[in-house]
Amino acid sequence: MRQASRWWPWIGAVIGVAALAWVLRRLDLERLRADLAGADVRFILLVPLAIVAEQWVRAWKWRQLLHSIKPGIDTLHLLGAIMAGFLVGMLVPLGAGALARSWLVARREALTTSGVLATVALDRLTDGIVFALLIPVALVLVAFPDPAGDIRAGLAWVAVGSLVLFGLLLLALSAYRRDTLREGGHVLRLARALPERIAGPVRRVLISFAEGVSWPRELWRGLGIVLASAAMKLIAATHFLWAGLAFGVLLAPGTYLFLTVFLGFVAVLGHWARVPGSFIVAAIFALGLFGVAEATALAMVLVVQGASLLSVAALGALALWRQGVALADLRTAQRAHEAGG
């Protein structure tokens, strides 16, 4: 098992390179150069603005989820923590990004990392449920070549599977909170069975995480969280709109929503499977379904990917610098959290 884990990044890299080479096997380099040289910079500049706007909405949404454990946290500080988390997630192993953003907020607001991490879990799950609900909407709005119906069927199954999975996870978190915060709960009894040296720290982490699993009592906050998740997807749909307009490409409105849900699924799958370039391959394939030439599709993807990387690098590094945090501090915090601190 350990050998497979050690070799998988290399296997994933080979798969990613091979898939990218296959998709770009007929790439017209002259057209790519012409597209990039003639790009409308005004539309290109709108891509990073849309990316930041999307994450600003996420920060506002996160503020509502944090309200039960710490009211009034500044949305701007949460935006910085989110971008810093994305930056850390690009540089260190899986899962570190969510832990980093939680630690940054906990450090600044005198909260527990576990409690803040619970709100990140709620953020991700609500995003996942809204994502699953948007898939059938996108499939209804868009027509594309799919003679065998494989793409539509695959996305339909993704929608159903995601909805069931995220719904069950939400129920599991709710059950965990009720059990952990009641006297004589099963979770804390299991913690007491651990060696005395670590039982105390583990117990504190379990309780603080349970306290963070709290949906706002105010109806408007709960509704705002759901609407914010939907708004983020709609803003994300404009990334390829602006990138396409920079190269003279304008697709039907529903196409951009389809691209968002399709590429969102591929991005998550590629991230966890550690297959580099999966987003680029999927984006070129998806844009090709709507008649966009490979060279132009690659130019659009490069703009979106480049804008995303630059936005994360700039704002994430700025947020870390403003808090006086180095990557070594984040690694230390990660080890402390894993040890139950």
Explain how this protein is built.
The chain has one domain. It has helices at residues 2-23, 29-37, 41-66, 75-91, 96-109, 113-141, 150-180, 186-192, 196-212, 219-236, 238-245, 253-273, 278-289, 294-322, 327-338. The chain is globular, with a radius of gyration of 22 Å. It has 341 residues and is mainly alpha-helical. Helix 4 packs antiparallel against helix 5 and helix 5 packs across helix 6 (113-141). It starts with a helix and ends with a helix.
Task: Tag the structure with descriptive keywords.
0% strand; mainly alpha; 80% helix; 341 residues; 15 helices
List the topology elements:
Blueprint (H helix, E strand, L loop, with lengths): L1 H22 L5 H9 L3 H26 L8 H17 L4 H14 L3 H29 L8 H31 L5 H7 L3 H17 L6 H18 L1 H8 L7 H21 L4 H12 L4 H29 L4 H12 L3
First CA to last CA: what distance?
A: 29 Å
Count of alpha/pi helices: 15
Instruction: Specify the biggest β-sheet.
Output: none
Rg: 22 Å
Number of domains: 1
Poorly predicted runs are none
Order of helices and strands: HHHHHHHHHHHHHHH
Q: Return the structural class.
A: mainly alpha
Share of helix, binned: over 70%
Shape: globular
The count of DSSP E runs of length 2 or more, i.e. the number of strands, is 0
Summed over residues and divided by their number, the pLDDT gives a mean of 86
Strand content bin: under 5%
